[in-house]
Amino acid sequence: MKKISVVIPMYYEEKVADECYNRVKKCLQEIKNYEHEIIFVNDGSKDKTLEILEGIANKDKSVKVISFSRNFGHQAAVTAGLKYVTGDAIIIMDADMQDPPELIADMLKLWEDGNEVIYGKRKSREGESIFKLLTAKMFYKTLNALSDVEIPKDTGDFRLVDRKVVDTVNAMPEHNKFLRGLFSWVGYKQTPFEYERKERVAGETKYPLKKMLKLASDGIISFSRKPLKLVGILGFISIFISIIILIYTLISYAFKLNHLSAGWTSIMVTVTFFAGVQLLSIWILSEYIGRIYDETKQRPQYIVEKTINIEK
């Protein structure tokens, strides 16, 4: 019998933990001919989140709990959950119920039709501010402009992924994973699943501006070297400007245009030229460092302090 795994990261979610479990469990029980497991990943919460999850796991052995030694971030929590899944079809979703678990059955049908990545595409986003909607739109435009791999717009981490796709992503050792980008990068047969995103059932968003910027930087740095090349372009532009200034100065002297202050030429040419040389040098070094950086990410992405209902 095939098995469904649901991975749910939890960070200060004591207000929604019980409802999250009840709704997900109910939806999974309604899907016939499939076994299931729910993997909650406690991302260093200091409230009662872990206590609630422990109580659920003690009553329901299909619930597995992974608890970090501290907060390592949403992407690290999802990555940890993917390492422990045993199912054939893996669902990634958040605990706030903005991504309704009632859609799992419909996504599963698309998987049964041969699709290997079914990613949730938001038709609307209820309860989110204009600022967040605008920044999200800008993020995807910027990311796709810089990246060599197209990442679908209006998507998050809510998706159903085939086991072999998860195995492929798990085999990647890199740190600071940007999972929605990696799932696009690996390829396989992908299809969108449009849905209406709801408001949080309780609690507050765990993605303030600081974390949104961190996620954006991870996405851009992980999937593009164009920012490094942009530094080189700026270097060439600076050198070009310095040459224009030098030519302009020579013409001014040749035609007796003495409106330039003494010393202005030497200062401007020197500053712009060496600024260009420095930026060009940084670009060359950055290309090498970028490649080294890609190969030397050996620090663990997270530390597991405790597990429940997981076989060693």
Structure description:
With 312 residues, the protein is α/β, with parallel strands linked by helices. The protein has two domains: 3-224, Spore Coat Polysaccharide Biosynthesis Protein SpsA, Chain A (Alpha-Beta Complex); 226-295. 49% of the residues lie in helices and 18% in strands. The protein contains ten helices and eight strands. Strands 7-5-6-4-1-2-3-8 form an eight-stranded mixed beta sheet, with helices on both faces. The chain is elongated. The protein starts with a strand and ends with a strand.
**What ranges have pLDDT less than 50 throughout 5 or more consecutive residues?**
none
Mean pLDDT: 76
Structural class, from helix and strand content?
alpha/beta
Q: Cα distance, first to last residue?
A: 23 Å
CATH topology of the largest domain: Spore Coat Polysaccharide Biosynthesis Protein SpsA, Chain A
What is the CATH class name of the largest domain? Alpha Beta
What is the number of independent domains? 2
Strand order of the largest sheet: 7-5-6-4-1-2-3-8
Instruction: Give me the CATH architecture of the largest domain, please.
Output: Alpha-Beta Complex
How many strands, what sense, and barrel or not for the largest sheet? Answer: 8 strands, mixed
Q: What is the string of SSEs from the N terminus onward?
A: EHEHEHEHEHEHHEHHHE
> In which range does the helix fraction lie?
40-55%
Number of strands: 8
What's the overall geometry? Answer: elongated
**Rounded to an integer, what's the Rg over CA atoms?**
25 Å
Query: How big a fraction of the residues is strand?
Result: 15-25%
CATH superfamily of the largest domain: Spore Coat Polysaccharide Biosynthesis Protein SpsA, Chain A
Q: What's the total helix number?
A: 10
